[in-house]
Each structure stands twice: as structure tokens, then as C-alpha cells.
Amino acid sequence: MAALSTEASPVINTAPVFIPVELPPPVQAQSAAPASAPQAEAPQEIHIELRRGAVTVNVRWPMQAAAQFAAWLREILR
User: Fold this and answer.
1) Which of 13, 15, 40, 69 could form a disulfide bond with 61, CB atoms 3.0-4.6 angstroms apart?
2) Residues 46/66, Cβ–Cβ less than 8 Å
3) pLDDT at residue number 2
4) Residues 56, 62, 71, 55, Cα dihedral to 10°
5) Over 90: is that where the pLDDT of 11 sits?
6) Residue 10 vs residue 75, higher pLDDT
7) Tens of pLDDT, residues 14-60
8) For 12, which DSSP code?
């Protein structure tokens, strides 16, 4: 069995010091798609298809009412 040392180690109380680090200039990020590529248009409506057994229901909801759609869907899925 190893003997435990009773000698105390010295504790050095020094305040943290700020050390400035020089970084290279930031690099401009380039988009993955070329500038001439057509931009995808944001969808104007939410479209879901619900299936339960032999019944299929397609629902289209305006994107402007997304919060109301979320509330409606939460109730339907209960």
C-alpha cells in the first residue's frame, strides 16, 4: 500500500491574463449554387395527405395561416 504524502503543494494565486491572438482575415463564403441558377420559390401553401385505413384526405392550407394549420393538425392527430 502506498503511503500518502502529508506535504502540501504550493498554491499560486494569479489573476487570469488576457493574451491577444492574431487571426487571419475572414474568408468570404461563396454560395454552393452558381449565380445563374434559378432560385426555388417559397411554397405558397402547405399540402399534406392523411391516410387512415382505406380513407385518404388531401389538405391544402395557405402558408400565411401556418400557425392555425399547426393547431388544427395537432387536434386531428390526437
Assistant:
1) 69
2) yes
3) 58
4) 0
5) no
6) 75
7) 777 877 888 888 888 766 666 666 777 888 999 999 888 999 999 99
8) -
DSSP helix/strand/coil, 76 = helix
Assigned C-alpha cell, 23: 487571426
Residue type, 44: Q
Count, residues in the chain: 78
Would you state the cell numbers that stand for residue 34, as one nine-digit string? 452558381
- Cell numbers representing residue 12 in the block: 499560486
User: What is the spatial distance between Cα 60 and Cα 45, in angstroms, rounded to a whole number?
Assistant: 6
Q: How far apart are the first and last CA of the chain?
A: 65
CA distance 20 to 38: 44
Residue 68 CA to residue 47 CA, distance in Å, equals: 14
Domain residue ranges in the chain: 46-76
